[in-house]
Amino acid sequence: MSRIAYVNGxxxxxxxxxxxVEDRGYQFADAVYEVCEVRDGRLIDERRHIERLQRSxxxxxxxxxxxxxxxxxxxxxxxxxxxxGYGLVYLQISRGVARRDFAFPSPDVEPSLAVTARSxxxxxxxxxxxxxxxxxxxxxxxxGRVDIKTVGLLPAVLAxxxxxxxxxxxxxxxxxxxxxxxxxxxxxxxxxxAGVVVTRHADHAILRGITRTVVLDVIKAQxxxxxxxxxxxxxxxxxxxxxxxxxxxxxxxxxxIDGHTIGDGKPGPVVIALRQEFHRFAEAG
Length: 285
Ligand code: PLP
What we know:
Elements lengths: L3 E4 L2 E4 L10 H5 L2 E9 L2 E2 L2 H15 L7 H14 L5 E8 L17 E8 L2 H10 L1 E7 L14 H12 L4 E5 L4 E5 L3 E5 L5 E3 L10 H12 L4 E3 L2 E2 H5 L3 E6 L3 E8 L2 E2 L7 H13 L4
Parallel strand pairs: 7-8, 7-15, 11-12
Antiparallel strand pairs: 1-2, 1-6, 3-4, 3-5, 5-6, 8-9, 9-13, 10-11, 10-14, 14-15, 15-16
The site of pyridoxal-5'-phosphate has 13 residues, from helix 6 and strand 14.
């Protein structure tokens, strides 16, 4: 079956799904995106993803190209046309197509909207979670507003490739004070020796993950102690458990950081329980 994408009002076969060479997403990374999990053919946490999208657009003064309701229809239609049982939908909105100039184009330039979807292997994801993943760390060299979900992802691309080159799967960024900010494409968490779950507070230095928000709800329901604060790399090395959260990985155990074994080198009970409970707390559309 050929894949279908939505581009600016049309559902198209992948080979015809193109944007203009002067699209500002292509020229300047002047664009934002969202990734939503699809499970049993349903969009997970669509409302929260669209709310975060609206915030990202607002921060950059890009117009929302259609109402949240209409956008939800497009997302579900792309997932359905690609027959996604388990996988993801990706959407990107750029400031539109205009002659290359750093300043904003005229306000009547329409933003561009593109949506794609693809299947993922639930078995592969679960196998990874059963083993846990290795992480390496890298200096956080991103811009100061990573709370906005822009497509300007070059530091994350390089950090992730660095992880792969070192036989790891994810990279954690570390700020100038030696504190972990987040992963290249996921939020970072530890469980201390005392059993406290710690993740960085959501300021301009991290993306406020939708999975992070839902996991905080699960943690509260499980009556675990949680602290939203920066933690050092040393605390991470000494943690009892570590994990990352993102829409496609859910709560994914981390079993080594920079070659230091975390806990006993196996996924711990806290992350296993959070992963199991996640979908009881997420919204399925
Ligand atoms: N942090 C970064 C830098 C990300 O790129 C992502 C996801 O892409 C996340 C955190 C996790 O966000 P979410 O849980 O909404 O997928």
